[in-house]
Amino acid sequence: MNQKLAHLFYQLAEYLEMNEVAFKPQAYLRVALNIENMPEDLEEIYRQKGAGGLKDLPGIGQGIAEKIEEFIKTGRIGELEKLRRQTPVDIEALTKIEGIGPKTIRTLYKELGVKNVADLEKAAKSQKIRQLEGFGAKTEENILSAVRFSRQDADRFLLGFIWPAVEEVKNKLAKVPGVRRVEVAGSLRRRQETVGDIDLLAVSSQPQKLIDFFTSLPNVEKIYGQGQTKANVRLDWGIDADLRVVPPKSFGAALQYFTGNKDHNIALRKIAIQRGYKLNEYGVFALGAKKEENLVTGESEKDIYNFLGLQYLPPEARENTGEIELAQANKFPRLVGYGDVLGDLQMHTRWSDGAYSILEMAQAAKKLGRQYILITDHAGRLEIAGGLKEADLQKQMVEIETADKKISGLKILKGAEVDIDKDGRLHIDDATLSRLDIVLGSIHSGFKINKQEMTRRVCQAMQSPHLDVWAHPSGRLLQRREGYQVDWGEIFRAAKKTNTAIEINAYPERLDLSWPKVKDAIAAGVKLTIGTDSHSIDHLKYLDLGVSVARRGWAAKKDILNCLSWQDLLKYFRK
Question: Where is the Helix-hairpin-helix DNA-binding motif class domain (predicted)?
C-alpha cells in the first residue's frame, strides 16, 4: 500500500509541476519520498487507528491523511483524478523517457499536442521538436533514442522493487496450515535485474486449501486459472504470478526446473541423457527394462546436481555461460555470501540530497548488522544534488567524527562522491581529498560524448592519487537510460594499474556494474566494492542486491573489498 500511495503522490507532484503550480509539487514530492521510506504500513495504521493515527506519523498532516483515507476507502484520489481529466497526458509513461520531465511535457503538449509516448515519437520522427525554442536536432535524436530504449523490458519490473512484495506473499503462504515449504523460483530466484512474472513453489499436505488462500489474497486482481495444485493470477502490481504445489519427492527437481534459465536446463538435460537418464520437473528417472520410468532422485536440488556429476550451482549462476563446465571439473568458485559484506560504501545524508542525518543513517545501518558505513555526499559541481564545496566537506568531517563517537559497534568513515569533469579532474582540491578516508568519483554529466573521449575521461580520473573507487561506472538507469560508451578493456587495465576499485552500485535502478562486466573486471584483476547509494534509511536494505550482482558475476569474497574489516579496508587503499 505504501508504494502505491507514494506513486500517486509522485504523480500529483508531476501534474502540478506541469501545470506550473507553485510550491505544492515540492510538498507532494516530500510526502511521496516520506511514504516510500516509511517502515509502517499506512493501511494497517488506518485500519487500527483511523485518520487520527495517520496524522500522528511524521510528515503526514490533515490534508495528506484525508487523501490517504480517501484512497484506502475508494481506490482513488479525487484531486489526482481531476488533474488527469484536465490534462489528458500520460505523464507517467512520458516521464519514464530519459530527459523528459514535467516542464518538457508541458512545452511539448502546448506546442505540439504530445499526449503520450507514441505522440512523442511521431513528433521527433517528423522533426517538429527541433523547431521549438530551447530544443534542437541533437535533443530530438536523443529523445528518439530514449523512446526506443524505453521499450526494452517495458513489461518487466525492477528486481529491487518487486522482491520485497514477493517475499511478503511468500511469507503469508508459508503460514497457511499444512504448508511445509514455499520457495520463489524463476528469474527472481536467479536475481535477474528485471522480472517478467513470479513463480512460486510449495509443498503442502492440503494443496487445495493453499491454492484457495492464494487466489483470495487482497492483491489478486484477476484469476486466470485455478486447480487443485496450481493457480495463475494477476496481482494488482501489474504482474502475473503462478503457484504450484508439488509432492515432496519432486520438490528439488521442480525448483531447479522452474528456476531456469532455459539454456542451463537444456544443458543439464543433455548431461542426464548422456548418462542414460531422463531429467524433468518431476525428478531424475532411470528407464527400466520395459521402458518404465523409475524415480532416482528429485527431492533436493543438490542431490540432482551431484547425481549428474556436478558441483551444486547457486541460482544466480545458472545462465549457461560456462558454469556447468566448471562445475563438472569441480572448479566453480565459492561465491561471496550475503553475510560476507561487512560495510556499505556509498550513501547520502542531508548534507547533500539525502533525507536523513549522518547519525540516523549510522543507527539504521547498525540495526541491519553493518560493521561500518562510508558517508559519500555529493561533492563538486553537482549543484542539483547539493554538491558540497571544500568548506562544506571540512565541516561535515567534524560532524562525522562527532557521530562516530556517539555510536558503538559501527564505524563511520569519511568519504565523498566527487564529480568527474569532462577533462577527468576531480572537482575538490587535493588538500581536502587527502583528509577523507575513501573517495568515490562518478560521472553525472556529458553522457553523450564519444567512446574515446569518455574512456580518456575515466582513465584520467583514475590517475588521481585520491580516487579510490569509480562509482556507478556505466551510468545506466535500468529501463530509462543506456550506459555511456567506453572501452572497458582499457578502463579495467587502468583500474588495475592505479589500484582503483570499481563499484557495484546496489540501487535497484542501477545495479551497475552489470554482472557480465563484473566477470570481466575480476578476470582483469580489478577489485570491486558494493554500495547502496542510499538516500534514505529504507534504501540501506539494498546491499543484498549488490551482492546478488556480484554472485551473478561469479565474484568470490576476495574480490569484494568491503568484505574486509574497516581497518583492513583503509590499509588497502592507503598502501
Answer: 52-71, 92-111, 127-146
Instruction: Specify whether 35 is located in the same domain as 171.
Output: no
Structure letter (DSSP) for residue 333: P
Residue 382 is predicted with a pLDDT of 62
Q: Are residues 145 and 162 in the same domain?
A: no
For residue 377, tell me if it sits in a domain: yes
> pLDDT averaged over the chain?
92
Q: Give the whole-angstrom CA distance, residue 255 versus residue 183.
A: 8
Give me the sign of the Cα torsion angle 418, 424, 428, 429: positive
Asked if residue 333 belongs to a domain, the reply is: no
> At 85, phi and psi to the nearest 5?
-70, -40
C-alpha cell at 332: 566453480
**Ramachandran category for residue 497: left, alpha or beta (phi over 0 → left; psi -120 to 50 → alpha):** alpha
Q: Which residues contact 266 (CB under 8 A, 6 or more apart)?
A: 320
In CATH, what number is assigned to the domain containing residue 555? 3.20.20.140
Q: Which three cell numbers stand for residue 272?
A: 542426464
* Residue 459 and residue 451 in contact, taking contact as beta carbons nearer than 8 Å: no
For the chain, report the end-to-end CA distance as a whole number of angstroms: 49
Range of the domain at 521: 343-574
Q: What are phi and psi of 449, to 5 degrees?
A: -65, 160
Work out how many domains the chain is built from and give that number.
4
pLDDT digits (tens, 9 = 90+) for 517-573: 999 999 999 999 999 999 988 899 999 999 999 999 999 999 999 999 999 999 999
Task: Give dist(CA 317, CA 305) in Å, integer.
Answer: 13
Whether 101 shows a pLDDT value over 90: the answer reads no
Cell numbers at residue 27, please? Answer: 510538498
3-class SS of residue 175? coil
Name which of 350, 430, 427 is nearest 396 in CA terms. 350
| CA atoms of 84 and 2, how far apart (whole Å) | 21
Q: For 342-353, b where at least 16 C-beta lie within 10 A, e where not — what string?
A: bbbbbbbbebbe
Pick from 420, 474, 423, 421: which is nearest to 442 by CA? Answer: 420
Prediction pTM value: 0.84
| Cα angle, residue 253 at apex, residues 247 and 259 outer, rounded to 5° | 115
pLDDT, residue 298, reads: 96
Same domain? 90 vs 184: no
Q: Give CA–CA dist 410/372, Å, rounded.
A: 5
| Same domain, yes or no: 38 and 13 | yes
CA distances from 214 to 80, 173, 224, 245 (A): 32, 7, 13, 11
The angle subtended at Cα 506 by Cα 98 and Cα 145, nearest 5°, is: 20
State whether the Cα torsion 506-512-514-520 is positive or negative: negative
CATH classification of the domain holding 59: 1.10.150.110
Name 339's Cβ contacts closer than 8 Å, sequence gap at least 6.
none
Which H or E run contains 16?
helix 2-18
Residue 341: pLDDT band with limits 50, 70, 90: very high
> pLDDT (tens digit, 9 = 90+) per residue, 484-522?
999 999 999 999 999 999 999 999 999 999 999 999 999
Say if CB 512 and CB 504 are below 8 A apart.
Answer: yes
What's the rounded Cα separation, in Å, for the pair 215 and 197?
A: 16
